[in-house]
Write a structure and sequence with these properties.
This protein has 88 residues and is mainly α. The protein has a domain of 35 residues. Helix content is 42%, strand content 0%. The longest helix is centred in the last third of the chain and has 16 residues. The chain is flat and about 50 Å long.
C-alpha cells in the first residue's frame, strides 16, 4: 500500500484570512479555559536536540530537501518513528 503524500498545496484562503479582523473569527467550537485548567496545566518543553554530523546518501538528502523547510526535523521524525517501531 502506497502512502499518500502529505506535501500538497494548501487550500486555505490565506489572503482572505489576513484581511479578516479578529472580531469575525468563530471561536464557538473551542472550550473556554478557566482557572482550574491552568492550575492543572503543565508546561512541557521539547527535549534539546544534539547537533551531530551525519552522512546520508545524496539522493536521500535531496529527497528530504526537496520537500522544503524543516527537512532536518522530518529526517528526525522518520528516525524517531523507526526507533519507536523497533523498541518493543
Amino acid at each position: 500500500m502506497k502512502a499518500k503524500s502529505s506535501v500538497r498545496e494548501s487550500r486555505t484562503e490565506w489572503n482572505r484570512l489576513k484581511q479578516m479582523p479578529d472580531s469575525k473569527i468563530d471561536y464557538s467550537d473551542i472550550p473556554k479555559l478557566d482557572k482550574s485548567f491552568f492550575k492543572q496545566a503543565k508546561l512541557r518543553m521539547p527535549k534539546r536536540k544534539k547537533s551531530v554530523s551525519l552522512r546520508l546518501d545524496p539522493d536521500v538528502l535531496a529527497w528530504f530537501k526537496h520537500r522544503g523547510r524543516g527537512y532536518q526535523t522530518k529526517i528526525n521524525a522518520v528516525l524517531k518513528a523507526y526507533v519507536e517501531a523497533h523498541e518493543h
